[in-house]
Amino acid sequence: MPNYLDIFAGAGGLSEGFIRAGYEPIAHIEMDKAACYTLKTRLAYKWLSERQESSIYTRYLKREITRKELYATVPEELLKSVLNYEISKDNLEEIFDKVDLLLNGKALDLIVGGPPCQAYSLVGRARDEKGMIGDPRNYLYILYAEFLRKYHPRYFVFENVIGLLSAKDTDGELYFDKMCRLFRECGYSIEYRQLNAKDYGVLQNRSRIILIGKYGQHEGFYPDIPKVTNDCTVGEIFKDLPKIKAGKGTYGLVPTLHYDGKYLFDAKIKEQDLAPVTLHCARPHTAQDLKIYKRAVQLWNKEKKRLSYTDLPKKLQSQNNLDSFLDRFKVVASDLPYSQTVVAHIAKDGHYFIHPDIKQNRSLTPREVARLQAFPDNYYFESESGRPSRTTAFKQIGNAVPVLLAEKIAIALLEVW
User: Fold this and answer.
1) In whole angstroms, what is the distance from residue 113 CA to residue 39 CA?
2) Separation between Cα atoms, residue 405 and residue 312, nearest integer Å
3) Which partner for 297 in 106, 269, 274, 358 could form a disulfide, CB atoms 3.0-4.6 Å apart?
């Protein structure tokens, strides 16, 4: 099976899909320390599971052993394949040296990954005074190209937001055009599609650019990625999770309820009935926010309408901005076939991700959001310190590629390999 290098790896959503499809990870490169620990913990889990020793991982989730003790049970080389670097001109050679050691003379078949997308996103540009023009993250694709020049993999898969197609440099030229031109200069033919995660088994409306490059001169090589029809609604992700109120729940393992549906099993989110989950802990909210949440849920339940901020009574309005982002309080409707797009902003507040159960009256937990991103329930999101962090988990989950979408891309690419 092909091997691959994951750059700008994040918490590993893209990588999880490729591993599921049978690809062999050589290394993951990620600047965020917490995400690197998440990647290491996931690699440790997989190594232990393959040897029928997943009980060690369970002991870790129960906090019976430390993270250091968990890592001591797997080969050191495995953990060393997670490279905690900010990719820059200054450290490229050092990163290449580390990757070369891990390749151990083998050729690299594939590179996957997408640079941070905030600089290209429509929302990011709308919120930034300069429209993100000149933001250094706009030019990370140039460093991506250095990996292509160094390793000449047969394929690469580049993921980013739809805003990439309209974001312009200071000279007025589209970044996307510059990017494609550079990739072609590196020897690659380029094809891309706009794919929406909701068409591939994910219960979320998440549209992204998936660009695939193939080394040499080629046409019509973009793989056919069959769409999937979901016959369930978003409520499926809540069915078996314990009901909790704002500020309640636990970071550690908590049993789930009996689940009589199919989706969670089919999507490989849930392995067995009643299997426990982690990170089902709701953030606390102010009394004012809780009043707004109730109004948002009631409006949806009664009229199937979204709450506009300007419709709130003046006593509940604390924001001065009454011209934009008026849908800042939004219910994750359980009766729709997919949710709104999960974004990293959920690490700052949960207003855009209100739980549909008015009795629970809260925003979503990290576990619920992870399910919207199709992460399996046994996926644990680490913090830098080792102490559980809801905020850190939200950030990693919001930035990830949905696992099911990644898996569909990986399988389809194999078929044209």
Assistant:
1) 14
2) 37
3) 358
- Residue 298 token pair: 């009631």
Contact 163, 115 (CB under 8 A): no
3-state per-residue secondary structure call for the chain: CCEEEEECCCCCHHHHHHHHCCCEEEEEEECCHHHHHHHHHHHHHHHHHHCCCHHHHHHHHCCCCCHHHHHCCCCHHHHHCEEECCCCHHHHHHHHHHHHHHHCCCCCCEEECCCCCCCCCHHHHHHCCCCCCCCHHHHHHHHHHHHHHHHCCCEEEEEEEHHHHCCECCCCCEHHHHHHHHHHHCCEEEEEEEEEHHHHCCCECCEEEEEEEEECCCCCCCCCCCCCCCCCCHHHHCCCCCCCCCCCEECCCECCCCCCCCHHHHCCCCCCCCCCECCEECCCCCHHHHHHHHHHHHHHHHHCCCCCHHHCCHHHCCCCCCCCCCCCCCECCCCCCCECCCCHHHHCCCCCCECCCCCCCCECCHHHHHHHCCCCCCCCCCCCCCCCCHHHHHHHHHHCCCHHHHHHHHHHHHHCC
Rounded to an integer, what distance in angstroms lies between the CA atom of residue 400 and that of residue 116? 10
pLDDT digits (tens, 9 = 90+) for 360-376: 999 999 999 999 999 99
Pairing between strand 280-281 and 249-250? antiparallel
Q: Determine contact, residues 105/6, Cβ cutoff 8 Å.
A: no
What tens digit of pLDDT does each residue of 105-144 get?
999 999 999 888 555 554 543 444 554 444 555 589 999 9
For the domain 3-228+402-415, what is the CATH code?
A: 3.40.50.150
Nearest Cα to Cα of residue 379 among 7, 69, 11, 51: 11
Tokens of residue 406, six digits: 């990644």
pLDDT of residue 132: 46
Cα(43)–Cα(136) distance, integer angstroms: 31
Neighbouring C-alpha atoms within 13 Å toward the C-beta of 25: 30
- The pTM assigned to this predicted structure is 0.94
| Surface-to-core class of residue 90, CB atoms within 10 Å of its CB (0-12 exposed, 13-18 middle, 19+ buried) | exposed
Burial class (CB in 10 A: 0-12, 13-18, 19+), 364: buried
Contact indicator for 25, 81 with CB cutoff of 8 Å: yes
Length of the chain: 417
Residue 363, CB-side half-sphere exposure with 13 Å CA sphere: 24
Q: Does residue 267 register a pLDDT over 70?
A: yes
Supply 112's token pair: 């996957």
